[in-house]
Amino acid sequence: MKKYKIGSGFAPFSPCQERFVAEGYRPAVFLEEQIKLASRVEGLSGIALDYPFQFAEKDAARVKSLLAETGMKFCTLELGIYPDRKWKMGSFCAPDPGIRREAVELSKKGLDMAALMKADDVLLWPGQDGFDYPFQADYRQSWKHLVEGIAEVASHNPDVKIGIEYKPKEPRTNIFVRNAGVLLYLLKCINMPNVGGVVDLGHSLVAGENPAEAAVLLSREEKLFSVHVNDNYRDWDHDMMVGAVSFWETLEFFYWLVKTGYNGWYIMDTFPYREDGLSALQRSVANSLRFLGMAEKLKGCGLEEAMKKMNAVGSSKILWETVFPEG
Description:
By secondary structure, the protein is α/β, with parallel strands linked by helices. The chain has a single domain, classed as Alpha-Beta Barrel (TIM Barrel), CATH 3.20.20.150. Helices cover 42% and strands 13% of the residues. It has eleven helices and ten strands. It has helices spanning 31-38, 60-70, 97-117, 139-156, 180-190, 201-206, 211-220, 247-259, 277-298, 303-308, 312-323; strands at residues 6-8, 46-51, 73-79, 121-124, 130-131, 162-165, 174-175, 195-200, 224-229, 266-268. The strands form two sheets. An eight-stranded parallel β-barrel has the order 1-2-3-4-6-8-9-10, surrounded by four helices. Strands 5-7 form a two-stranded antiparallel sheet. Strand 2 (46-51), helix 2 and strand 3 form a beta-alpha-beta unit. Helix 3 (97-117) runs parallel beside helix 4 (139-156), helix 7 packs parallel to helix 8 (247-259) and helix 8 crosses helix 9. It is globular and about 65 Å long.
């Protein structure tokens, strides 16, 4: 099987706090230990870190050394423009111009750090940019600030790729960049080659989308920069282990990524609140590799011909016989 780039953030090694158990479900682990734990996961080759909450300028040399020591790659630098009370009314869209400027300048520093650390890309998730009530937001003003702010950040270093992630809700009741269609509109407005999108499988499910179709739409525009993989029940972003609930949608997602020639990172974005973090991450990586193997097998078994005819019965027969052969 082709060598795929599998990465992960460090939520599996974090306390996994939530509003009912604010201190989390396990003790905190320092960054050095998190990187070493990640290096023990078979099939995992990259890490994603939040700037500046997981690491900052003073930590760069230490992180570089740990990456060299463990053989891990820095796949994604995540911009921390959401996990602080100061962003409660937004980051790029905040009504306070000082907060908006802080979001832009922090993001520019993040691009500089990504270039220094040789990260493959930067993840920008405007999760606090949205609204909770009718008549709360001036949509024209908010979208103006969003487009102009991200464009200014992207112009700071055109050699650094920025992947914008969408999500329908949480932490805001409604996030402005809520689905693949809205994301594509935002990318059209920004219209810069180093700005693309990220499809999080779980976010797509919660948005009521078909994740495979979302990935194809971004791929058609050559704007699919990265994907996050997890699972949920479509009602909330549970960030469960890969393939735990939505088996066929997950398989179709991987199938179309393989079919369209996607060669970016597959980032495990899971929060194993009550499970052992290392074991849960290993399971998600192993499941993802199994899905990728199945996707490769499906490429040459007549499935495409059945889909061209919209033959659902034929597709179902091929899928079951290929994925679950009898005897």
